[in-house]
Amino acid sequence: MQQTFQLQPPQIDVISIQSQVVYGSVGNGIAYRTLLKKGLEALQVPSVLFGCPPYYGAPSGGVISAEWFSGFLEDLIARGVMKRTRAVIVGYLGDVGQCHILDTWLQRVRAINPQIKIYIDPVMGDYGEGVYVDPRIVNYYRSPFLRLANGLTPNGFELEQLCGHSLVTCEQTLHAAQALLNDTTEWVLVTSAPGIAENDDELGLLLVSRNQVQSYTHPKIKSKVKGTGDMFTALLVSHLLHGKSLNDAIVTSGGEVCDVLAEAEHFGWEEIGSLRALR
């Protein structure tokens, strides 16, 4: 008797859900390339699709409709992909409707695959730029939605939006980050963290977990390329999936981002044009 086997999807390391551009190094434009460079199997789900980043002027493209966005996510469940996925990264979202869709979908995914890790970068804005998403997204991030994440990577400005007030000292940043911890959220890593860097030539990071507080600094590279936060989160998740400790993953990722920025500055690139500097 001929034995039959039921086909199943291959194992996927990361589903990256964020903005997508044809040209540029923001969102999946850099995160997906980084994940592949690190030897991971990754899939992209776009929240928006633009010809290039909006800082060049009004781009072609737009927000992925709710019907398409929810359909992309539903297809991953229907094909059994989420049963064999190790991690999900959530970055820039196009509108508040996508927040609602993701809220329900991530809860379903965790029920299907309790071992999956969910990492959310609550992209809302940055110092010098202000909030560049729909304010309703900011309000949604203040809701229990972020409690679905195992790890969070807000920058200092985004942490201020979450806690509702400005942050100046390390102690203030620490308390704001600790407020985001819960039974699911194991750690919060604040990039460009207020009160950490000792001078203007450094950037500070602050890690707050259930049993650890650790600060880090790295040189401030004077490159104008964008997307470093998206790249950093992708690098961090890559190293965690390869078995590094959280501390080692943070240090290594920070150093690699500096190397890539130094390369971009050396060649005068307007975008991250190469990942050769990644180890």
Automatic annotation (TrEMBL):
It is an enzyme of class 2 (transferase). GO terms for molecular function: ATP binding; hydroxymethylpyrimidine kinase activity; pyridoxal kinase activity. InterPro entries: PM/HMP-P_kinase-1 (IPR013749), PyrdxlKinase (IPR004625), Ribokinase-like (IPR029056). Its EC number is 2.7.1.35. Residues 89-253 form the Pyridoxamine kinase/Phosphomethylpyrimidine kinase domain. GO terms for cellular component: cytosol. It holds the Pfam family Phos_pyr_kin. SUPFAM superfamilies: Ribokinase-like (SSF53613). Keywords: ATP-binding, Kinase, Nucleotide-binding, Transferase. The keyword Transferase applies. One of its GO terms (biological process) is pyridoxal 5'-phosphate salvage. Gene3D superfamilies: 3.40.1190.20. PANTHER family: PYRIDOXAL KINASE, PYRIDOXINE_PYRIDOXAL_PYRIDOXAMINE KINASE. This is pyridoxal kinase. It comes from Serratia inhibens.
